From TrEMBL:
Reactions listed under catalytic activity: (6R)-10-formyltetrahydrofolate + H2O = (6S)-5,6,7,8-tetrahydrofolate + formate + H(+)
Positions of the catalytic residues: D230
Domain Formyl transferase N-terminal: 90-266
Protein family: Belongs to the PurU family.
Keyword hit for Hydrolase: yes
Entry keyword annotation includes Hydrolase: yes
Keywords from the UniProt entry: Hydrolase, One-carbon metabolism, Purine biosynthesis
Annotated function: Catalyzes the hydrolysis of 10-formyltetrahydrofolate (formyl-FH4) to formate and tetrahydrofolate (FH4).
Pathway where this protein functions: Purine metabolism; IMP biosynthesis via de novo pathway; formate from 10-formyl-5,6,7,8-tetrahydrofolate: step 1/1
Protein name in UniProt: Formyltetrahydrofolate deformylase
One MF annotation (Gene Ontology) recorded for this entry: formyltetrahydrofolate deformylase activity
Gene: purU
Length: 286
């Protein structure tokens, strides 16, 4: 794929002075124009984060050259960094069970060009949504999961992730709990949508819990998947006001909207390299 002249730099290191000056002078020296820049200094943990969108304006500079010289430039900072070519959309595998609203929404936004991604496959533990995938001309893989075949089916999923060079797995209402080993394999590259405003109402039936509790707000939470169910670093949340007159069914209907909004936003933020995982939290440059 042709290299574009636009790239995104993500970097993090222990906080100290001179980081921004060192990075921006290096990029300017190579004829790069910085069109967008965010930085955050976590004073509590002395950790520094930055994201820059840059355009190469020099004909003699390539992204590979920038990568090759970067470590030497920032060696004093022991920096974790990555450069992403904006012409290379992330490769994304979507997982779903029976509820179709999040998958449908992501496919619509992708069709409208809102989500810069290559969809590598749609994987489901049920056959119900195969027609939705086929309508879009996307490979559909049915991997039914039982307690007995879970390791085998998860191994099949990992093989698909590897053979399709998938960068990100999105659990768009996939209702099976991923094993610890799969969570480790997909660390930092699997996003789940939980149908409640975490930390409230974990587990498979949050709307009924919300109704019983009589909440006045319901919502959804998009988070990175970890072995601890519904405990992963939160990327995005969305809420809607409700009241005593809402039946569980109406709560589910309103909840669907919060799920699609939260998940689409979280996926877009990840695709645009705007999210840093940091302990069990995130830093997000919107
Ligand atoms: N390792 C993780 N796996 C998954 C997570 C996660 O946070 N960590 N999130 C879930 C999604 N989810 C809530 O958002 C969720 C899905 C399913 C269940 C559950 O209890 N499932 C039962 C089976 C239900 C069924 O077959 O329909 C189970 O797996 O025994 C709880 C929460 C996705 N995976």
């Amino acid at each position: 794929m042709s290299e574009s002249n636009v790239f995104v730099l993500k970097a993090a290191c222990d906080a100290t002075s001179g980081i921004v000056a060192s990075v921006t002078s290096y990029l300017a020296g190579l004829g790069c124009y910085i069109s967008e820049m965010h930085q955050y200094d976590d004073e509590e943990n002395q950790r520094f984060f930055m994201r820059a969108v840059c355009r190469i304006e020099s004909d003699s500079t390539t992204l590979e050259m920038i990568r090759e010289g970067f470590d030497a430039q920032v060696s004093e900072f022991n920096m974790e960094w990555e450069l992403f070519d904006s012409a290379e959309p992330m490769r994304v595998l979507l997982m779903v069970s029976k509820f179709d609203h999040c998958l449908d929404d992501l496919l619509y936004r992708h069709r409208k060009g809102e989500l810069p991604m290559e969809i590598t496959a749609i994987v489901s533990n049920h056959k119900d949504l195969r027609p939705m995938a086929e309508r879009e001309g996307i490979r559909f893989v049915h991997l039914p999961v039982t307690k007995e075949n879970k390791p085998e089916q998860e191994a099949a999923l990992v093989q698909i992730v590897e053979e399709t060079k998938t960068d990100l797995v999105v659990l768009a209402r996939y209702m099976q709990i991923l094993s610890d080993s799969l969570c480790k394999e997909l660390h930092g590259r699997a996003i789940n949508i939980h149908h409640s405003f975490l930390p409230g109402f974990k587990g498979a039936k949050p709307y009924h819990q919300a109704h019983v509790r009589g909440v006045k707000l319901i919502g959804a939470t998009a988070h990175y998947v970890t072995s601890d169910l519904d405990e992963g670093p939160i990327i995005e949340q969305s809420v809607q006001p409700v009241d005593h007159s809402y039946s569980p069914e109406r709560l589910v209907a309103v909840g669907r909207d919060t799920e699609t909004v939260a998940l689409a936003s979280a996926v877009r933020l990840h695709l645009e390299h705007r999210v840093f995982m940091y302990g069990n939290k995130t830093v997000v440059f919107k």
